[in-house]
Specification:
Strand content: under 5%
Largest sheet: none
Shape: elongated
Oligomer: single chain
Length: 99
């Protein structure tokens, strides 16, 4: 899956920035986080007054996670969902005979 142009591909492009964390969220999760964050941001602007502050805080967290590719909860739990993301296919041996 190709990333949209506004999403950095990897952390090497931003390695010079101080405090920037490694990418530990897979691309599909990042896109879902951006979509969910955008929906919650819209809800925080036009939704019921009672839920606006919570919607805004949640949208900020999801947008941060989606745009940077870093999840602090994943980091604390030792989860890296990008592992195995770049393996395209499993190669099968060509000389396999079926009887």
């Amino acid at each position: 899956m190709h990333a949209p142009p506004f999403i950095p591909q990897d952390s090497s492009a931003s390695a010079g920035r101080q405090g920037c964390q490694a990418v530990n969220v897979a691309m599909n999760e990042r896109l879902i986080s951006i979509g969910s964050g955008a929906a919650l941001l819209l809800n925080s602007l036009v939704g019921p007054k009672r839920t606006r502050p919570l919607s805004f805080l949640l949208s900020a967290g999801l947008l941060y996670r989606g745009l940077t590719g870093h999840c602090h909860a994943y980091e604390m739990l030792g989860i890296d969902s990008t592992q195995g993301e770049h393996s395209a296919s499993v190669e099968q041996p060509q000389d396999t005979q079926f009887e």
